[in-house]
Amino acid sequence: MSSSGLVLIFNAGSSSLKFSVIDPDSGRESLDGIGDALGSEQPVLKWQYDGHKHARKLDAGAGHGEVIDFLVGDLLGELPALKKRLIAIGHRIVHGGEHFSRSVLIDRKVIEAIGECASLAPLHNPPGLLGIRAALEAFPQLPQAAVFDTAFHQTLPEHAYLYALPYSLYREHRLRRYGMHGSSHRFVSERAADLLQKPLRETNIISAHLGNGASVAAIKGGTSVDTSMGLTPLEGLVMGTRCGDVDAGLLMHLQESLGYSPERLNQLLNRESGLLGISGLSNDCRELEQAAAEGHRGARLALEIFCYRLAKYIAAYTVPLRRVNAVIFTGGIGENSSWVRERVLHWLAALDYRLDTEMNERMRFGAEGAITPAGSPTAMVIPTNEEWVIARDAAGLVDGENG
Ligand code: ADP
Q: 6-148 belongs to which CATH class?
């Protein structure tokens, strides 16, 4: 892999654009920032370089293009040594549909295919394309790579990815389960094999990525064989504001008996449910833990439903894996919440999991290691690093292209 080259990463949301500069060899980050509230009256840009934080207001209505213009002109203009070391740009793209089972260098065909997948991820792919177009204009000389959240799960077998709907819906419209958080599941499963000192192809992992969005994946010898998110990121686990699995009949009931429109349903399921909806308090795990400790019933219940659902998924994924080398907790909640990990392992007592209370308490703020004692099946905390995966893939593609 190219030594001393750096990769500029873009992660575009509908009203935000995150960027960072990463060394693909070490994962070290030298610059990171976010353009937030884009398109609104008061967009703002915040960034961090060399341990110093900065912020400035952008003009009302400024969008992804303005953030990239500022980055290229002002910010990187003042950091010529950093700018000179850039060898590639990596874009995080949420949905690659069935077009992409790995990261690719971006050309006209790739852009078209990402556009075709936009109907499957209407909130995510269009801003991703905006980021790509703006970056192509600003950095015409740099190769650019697209890294897809869905790509890692393209190895799911048919019996795991098909819904039990008429097959024609899959054949004609590609309606199936795709899964997300692929870069994170891939990163922690590879790291787990390192920590377990086993070859990746002989390592079976269940990884739980628990952030505001949450998903769990069954990874057999480095290959994803099942995962909890579906056609969209709504399926599966309880999340910050998303409900995860619900009876599809409930959705019909909400429409037919309670008069919910599709827009209202979307708002309910994606933004008002999950930890926030159950607790009536917050989608933030830290706040809920504190409230639960002080006796707030809704907060306690929300956390318990979250943990119970996750434990059920983990137990279910022993079916495709048969032998599980480790369960991995990652993402903001997985890496930091000893409460959640304790409750999940409590529910997994059925599979003989036990908790090392002291190690569990120690695992936070970037710590890595096992939280189970000798004699128990293994559960570990591994901090994820999706940006590093994007940087490695982009640098690897550039190296490949250069022979
Ligand atoms: P995103 O999906 O937005 O990237 P993160 O991976 O940053 O989300 O995770 C955010 C979640 O992590 C929030 O629910 C937050 O409360 C939780 N979290 C972060 N730090 C802690 C902590 N020390 N204890 C418990 N939960 C935490």
A: alpha beta
Q: Please report the pLDDT score of residue 252 as a whole number.
A: 97
Q: Which residue of 282, 285, 340, 382 sits with most ligand 1 atoms within 8 Å of its CB, as the best mutation to test the pocket?
A: 285
User: Does residue 149 carry a catalytic annotation?
Assistant: yes
Domain boundaries, the chain: 6-148, 197-386
**In contact, 381 and 329? CB cutoff 8 Å:** yes
Determine the distance separating the centroid of ligand 1 and the alpha carbon of 375, expressed in angstroms.
30
- Looking at domain 197-386, which of 1.20.210.10, 3.30.420.40, 3.40.50.300, 3.40.50.720 is its CATH number? 3.30.420.40
What is the pLDDT, as a whole number, of residue 39? 87
Pocket-testing residue among 210, 270, 337, ligand 1, by greatest number of atoms within 8 A of Cβ = 337
| Residue entry with tokens 């933004």 | 271
pTM for the full predicted model: 0.94
